Amino acid sequence: MAKSATKDMTVGSPMKLILEFAIPTLLGLLFQQLYSMVDTIIVGKWLGVNSLAAVGSTGSLNFMVVGFCIGVCSGFAIPVAQKFGAGDYRALRRFVANGVWIAAIFSVIMTTLVSYFCMDILKVMKTPDNIIQEAYLYIVVIFLGIPVTYLYNLLSGVIRSLGDSKTPVYFLVLSSVLNIGLDLLSIGVLHMGVTGPALATVISQAVSGILCLLYIKKHYEILHIQKDEWAWDWHYVKILCGMGIPMGLQYSITAIGSVVLQTAVNSLGSMAVASVTAAGKVSMFFCCPFDALGGTMATYAGQNVGAKKLGRISQGLRSASILGAIYGIAACLVLSFFGKTIALLFMDANEVEILNSAQLFLRINTAFYIPLALVNIVRFAIQGMGFSTFAILSGVCEMIARAVVAFAFVPMFGFVAVCTANPLAWIMADLFLIPAYFYCLRKLRGWFEKPKRI
């Protein structure tokens, strides 16, 4: 293993370390969003507004299911980061091995269940009749790709837990280019409709996952798992599930609120769905820095907990929060003035009503980007510290906020209420997470510090 491939985040300037780790992570997220946006752009421009609405109507459902996979894999990476920080490489490999077994089991069960019930879920969500068939064709292909979602996210999470945030980016760049090419081929040449971009996404992610696997085998001697380390071990399985399942449920529970909200949006018609789809894609792209800071804090906190350097966690949290606030203000200014122009990427200029609604959505949401930054930074810091259960509770806060808006306010205020759902959810989560962080810090101090002798 080349030492340059890993990064010890337990020594050095927290601000510098966070920036060095977050920037490659950000580039990876941007490329992920890039090919997601390209899917949407090609669908909206080439297949029309109804197809755009069909793909967009599956966004919250996609987040609920695929988000669980991503959350589980992120949780599995936490004990790996902690053991790396502690220098216990044998335990590190056993965590990776048992994580592979669990991910394989989860992928089979989830793929079978969600693919079978996919159409029923779309009907429960009141997906408009004129787009439900296309919505089904798109999302069922994404769900059939759940195993490769686990493959990429598990392996890239392990690589990042060792402090290497650059390598997964290189593979994402390649897969993004591949995805764009497959989009153009499947729609422009093969005329596959919305199925084409979904299949392109799955194939591209599979390529990224395979490249991560090959890279690990070649460059990470520390991850060369011995035969006896592959054995199923309930001790490691319990720890991995204790970390991974709560993080996965946090994504899913948060997404349940989004599904409920999407159901309310669906009731407003396909025009409203298209507006939220376009604005949501723009917002997700601009929110990548918050996700990058969050992912960075998970690794940073995990390594420093392993090294028992709790003071550095708070220093890192402050540094990340400053970076998040600065970026949040800049993003708010850009999208408040140019959000409608950027939304033109997804549709023609004559879709005036959709563009105006998308601009309203962006202006209201970006005004609360600083609370969103704190949600990501504090939540992932807590998870890196080993308190993944708190992620579920913060997800519950977000779910309740979005559900209240969907049930109580959308019927009365329509699309304006939809625009306020995310800001309310972020504020509710912060009100829980900030006190929870200080509680977790006190708990760790109590575990690490020996009682003073009298």
Write the layout of secondary structure elements.
Blueprint: H1 14-47, H2 49-57, H3 59-86, H4 89-116, H5 118-124, H6 132-144, H7 146-161, H8 167-189, H9 195-219, H10 234-266, H11 270-286, H12 288-306, H13 310-343, H14 352-366, H15 369-384, H16 389-413, H17 415-448
Helix pairs in contact: 1-2, 1-8, 1-11, 1-12, 1-13, 2-6, 2-11, 3-4, 3-7, 3-10, 3-12, 4-6, 4-7, 4-10, 5-6, 6-9, 7-9, 8-9, 10-16, 11-13, 11-14, 12-13, 12-15, 13-14, 13-15, 14-17, 15-16, 15-17, 16-17
Task: Describe the protein.
The protein has 454 residues and is mainly α. It has one domain. The chain has 17 helices and no strands. It has helices spanning 14-47, 49-57, 59-86, 89-116, 118-124, 132-144, 146-161, 167-189, 195-219, 234-266, 270-286, 288-306, 310-343, 352-366, 369-384, 389-413, 415-448. The N and C termini lie far apart (48 Å).
Question: Helix/strand/pairing class, anyone?
Answer: mainly alpha
Helical proportion, percent range: over 70%
Q: How many helices?
A: 17
Detail the poorly predicted runs: none
Q: How far apart are the first and last residues' alpha carbons, in Å?
A: 48 Å
Q: Output the radius of gyration.
A: 21 Å
Q: Count of DSSP E strands?
A: 0
What is the overall pLDDT average? 84
Along the chain, the helix and strand elements come as HHHHHHHHHHHHHHHHH
Shape: globular
How much beta, percentage-wise? under 5%
Number of domains: 1
Most strands sheet: none
